[in-house]
């Protein structure tokens, strides 16, 4: 394994004792099933360069043609997959603009980080409006009203500024698609990365719209960090590639992106997102065996291109609704699929990129709380190192709502506190015994004066930030007020000289994004 430099500052995340659904024998059965799938029927590869690379390293590859395209069927001996996957690093550093926001992902350490994700087309703006009772005009109350806005660079910038202030958000994956009239396929990548990097000091990740965008995004990272070498040591950007179209088909243009990203030396998530019931079996064993096979084949490709390349095991399995075949996230199977995948990633000793915080609810409310808590808690318990989709998503992954991101931040904070390692050790026991003796020797026999120390040590959680103390439910109103306070804080833009250099060297960035620190 290629060693990395140990870093002395990174985000704390939360250390958990992983909840495991599968026994060791069951993990091995799934591993064997995935190897069997990769051998027969194998995969359908629509990228000639990848097919040739697989063949060079011992896969059985044969060309197949139909009326519309040419593909190569590749069958892999298990030894080839095992050897390649074994070359992937077990520890990865994801960089950031400031050192304390870097992430240390270690497959052997269940340190959990939460971040945003998707690339929703719709931004949901929330306002409180006053209404009067039709039965008693003396009764008035405030009710949330929601407005859908089309995603844009200014809204993506606003999302990044807000996420900078959410203390439990550990990394930023663009949660909103930019659809300004001036945005084209050619300048989409530079604008979404610049809008993000210029408004947040945490790690920034996204997919590539076009292969041509890679060079300019990497150059942007080099300008911000100071040099190509500095970017490799502190990779403040990374990429996502969903190289498989399920079931078992490598996509031509995405494979080209994987080759280029690996050669650029910037970390990559090999992601797969089959839907149980349509593009994958709905049964747990079938879904997990297939998605694992797809991810392993993608990771194998990265290691055949460059052994030791930093890659994340990216599992995004979902289940189909049986009434309309849309994705169904807030269901037990979603957790089962994802927890199994987290165990498999640990089995292969590769950091796990996983999924939580998505549901069917279209607006903030009780349904959203249930669906999000249901996945936030279980996936954190799994010990997956890198959990995306966790902030602000509604209507599956179709909408991003900033006040929902604020609510999610509070919820995730409580989950992080719940899952902390127990502070039970000989020193703590000794302190407790001294405290009991001291309190029982006092005239009042109360522990109140000893609470302050625990509070300062972070051992005591705060009440729910948006709790409603009266008969009216004011949770959303309080969350909106808090969001307004966060958004009024100064943005942490890049230094003016850095922005000037980026605009000089990187074509296509919209002038409206030129905010500076």
Write up what this structure looks like.
This protein is α/β, with parallel strands linked by helices and 517 residues long. 40% of the residues lie in helices and 19% in strands. The chain has helices at 24-39, 48-56, 78-86, 153-165, 188-197, 213-225, 228-233, 252-264, 284-305, 332-347, 366-382, 402-418, 426-440, 451-456, 475-487, 496-505; strands at 14-15, 43-45, 60-65, 70-75, 91-94, 103-106, 111-114, 122-132, 140-150, 171-173, 203-207, 237-241, 244-245, 249-250, 268-272, 275-276, 311-315, 318-320, 327-328, 352-355, 386-388, 393-394, 399-400. The strands form 5 sheets. A 9-stranded mixed β-sheet has the order 1-7-21-20-17-15-12-11-10. Strand 3 and strand 4 (70-75) form a beta hairpin. Helix 5 (188-197) packs parallel to helix 6 (213-225). The two termini are 40 Å apart. The mean pLDDT is 94.
